[in-house]
Amino acid sequence: MFRRTEPTDCMIEWDGRALPACAGEPLAVALLAAGVTHFRETAVSGTARGPLCLMGACFDCLVQVEGEANVQACMVMVRPGLRAGPQHGVRGL
Amino acid sequence: MAAAVAARGQGLSVLLLDENPAPGGQVFRALDRRPPKDAQDRRGADLLAAFRASGAEAHQGAVLWAVEDGPRVFWSQNGAAQSASPGRLILAPGATERPLPIPGWTLPGVMSVGAAQIALKTAGLVPEGCVWIAGQGPLMWLYAAQALRQGGRIAGIIDLAPPDAEMRALRHPLGLLRGMDYLARGLAWKAAVKRAGVPVFAATDVAAEGEGRLDAVMFDGRHEAADLLLLHDGVVPNTQVTRAIIGCRHLWDQGQACWKPVLDAWGQTSIPGVLVAGDSGGIGGATAAALSGTLAALEAARQMGRLSAEQRDALATPARLSRARHLAVRPLLDALFPPRPMGAVADATILCRCEEVTAGRVREAVALGCLGANQLKAFTRAGMGACQGRVCGPAVQGAIAAARGVSGAEVEPFRTRFPTKPLTLGELAALAG
After folding, report:
1. Nearest beta carbon to residue B124 from set A6, A24, A74
2. Which of A2, A6, A58 faces B391 most closely, judged by CB atoms?
3. pLDDT digits (tens, 9 = 90+) for B150-187
4. Residue A68 — pLDDT band, cuts 50, 70, 90?
5. How far is B167 from chain A (nearest CA, A)?
6. Which residue, among A58, A66, A72, would best test binding to B if mutated, counting the most B CBs under 10 Å from its CB?
7. Which of A56, B287, B321, B348 lies at a 20 to 30 A Cα distance from B359?
8. Nearest CA in chain B to A49
9. ipTM computed for the complex
10. Contact criterion met (CB below 8 Å) for B294 and B318
11. Per-residue pLDDT tens for B225-269?
């Protein structure tokens, strides 16, 4: 899918799994670089989705970041040790 | 950035609100993190340096969510909402990619060409493996050339441009002449793709297939393994904010099949105090966008009494002439890459990704008497999901127009409302503090 041309400099945690990343790059890009395409399941039918636009418009890259639900993974920048996981359907109240 | 630099040049104080972590928008994205790769990047780096030296107060990661009378703007930043009442407001939200709805385009592994370019610019990600690109337009060829130059591999390009594109181009001799530099760049990108040995297939349709993620692409009877499919069908103005401003007039652009705000030559909208610069006022490309920012800032300076009309005109002449030259190629590009007809999208194909509404359901609603996009919300919930019609808007609009047998101008676009970006109660509460 994608190959990095530059070295990574930190680790993040995705769904309990450690992944290499670069501080300051968008979280969605770090996940794609690690081969992750399944970011969430839709609220309507529960089907798998991944990012479409990477520029904050499509809301298809919604994930959970540090316990916060429905975060656009393309608009969150990686920091070392960042913890994130897939968004399963609608958020709980 | 260009508007900020020009406004500071006239002694105005400037507050810049930018949703992204660093200035530069999409074209000059992450220029502070990567070396300039071509002439355009170098122009961007110069503009970035001028912006940094201008004394403009830049707020990065600032998400604008409302514009009220005054104008007064509201935004969220670091989990708290803030507001400001500027003398003049220049909106420059840029463009979004026109959706290219095909069977299977909601599968993980199907993305837009613009998204892949952002991955390239922000983190140096190049395509590798079974990567296919499908669609039409300058950005598709630019990305392919950029990705190949940086060591990427592309399995093939599925060219969905109409087969009579060259004949269409000949009908715009003036555009051909005046847009020579644009055309030369386009031909160079195509040549780079050919030199790299990437096969190009002219096709009329494409589909994505897979269980839970993309496995294959199909086009004109062929079936090819794929782990990434990048789609592109040109770009449209981002009017999410201007459409939400009550009374801000918009008009239908038949050539680019999109709505755009009604602007005068300086970017003034129909709302006093609110101007628009860049591609959000009509697609013109990065160079024309920066020039329109300069013009909007000079007009803002005139409105605020810093310049007379004569002084403004004198200062604006180089930018006006240059912008006119850069816009001259647009009718030709519009003719070369007419947006894909939404009437041809299969009934089973999803148009609204958030609410999972198919083209067939949109047509059923039209058969029941639905006339426009806002009525369609009540029929189907199309455009009511998280993206608020940012992605599906042009597709839904086109599908309704085709089903009704009328021009896009006859079909009202989705009405947007503030807050135009998700806002938490906690963020909102910060306004009271």
Report:
1. A6
2. A58
3. 999 999 999 999 988 777 777 777 777 778 888 899 99
4. very high
5. 32
6. A58
7. A56
8. B108
9. 0.98
10. no
11. 999 999 999 999 999 999 999 999 999 999 899 999 999 999 999
Structure tokens at B354: 């958030």
Q: What tokens appear for B367 in the block? A: 């058969």
Q: Can you read off the two tokens belonging to residue B353?
A: 């990704």
Q: B73: which strand partners?
A: B67, B84
Max Cα-Cα span within chain B:
64
DSSP type of residue B265? T
Other beta carbons within 10 Å of B59: 16
pTM of the model: 0.96
Question: Of B30, B46, B113, B119, nearest to B290 (Cα)?
Answer: B46
Report CB contact under 8 Å: A2, B422: no
Terminal-residue alpha carbon distance, chain A:
36
Nearest to A55 by CA among B296, B235, B252: B235
Strands B89-91 and B72-77, by their bridges, are unpaired
pLDDT of residue B181: 85
SS (H, E, C) B56-72: CEEEECCEEEEEECCCE
End-to-end CA distance of chain B: 31
* Residue B12 near residue B301, CB atoms below 8 Å: yes
Q: Cα separation of B140 and B137, whole Å?
A: 6
Q: Residue B323's closest CA among B274, B259, B257, B278?
A: B278
Q: B260 by DSSP, 3-state: which?
A: strand
Give the separation between CA B352 and CA B76, rounded to whole angstroms.
27
Classify the phi-psi angles of B66: left when phi > 0, otherwise alpha if psi is within -120 to 50, otherwise beta. beta
A-proximal residues of B, 387-406, CB under 8 Å = 387, 390-391
Of residues B135, B132, B141, the one with CA closest to residue B161: B135
B106–chain A nearest CA distance, Å: 7
Distance between CA B258 and CA B91 in Å, rounded? 18
Q: How far apart are CA B308 and CA B302, in angstroms?
A: 6
Q: Which of B289, B254, B285, B250 is nearest to B269 (CA)?
A: B250
Phi, psi of B269 (to 5 degrees): -85, -175
Residue B241 and residue B416: Cα distance in Å, rounded? 7
Distances (CA, A) of B133 to B113, B147, B177, B428: 8, 12, 30, 42
Residue B303, burial from CB neighbour count under 10 angstroms (0-12, 13-18, 19+): middle
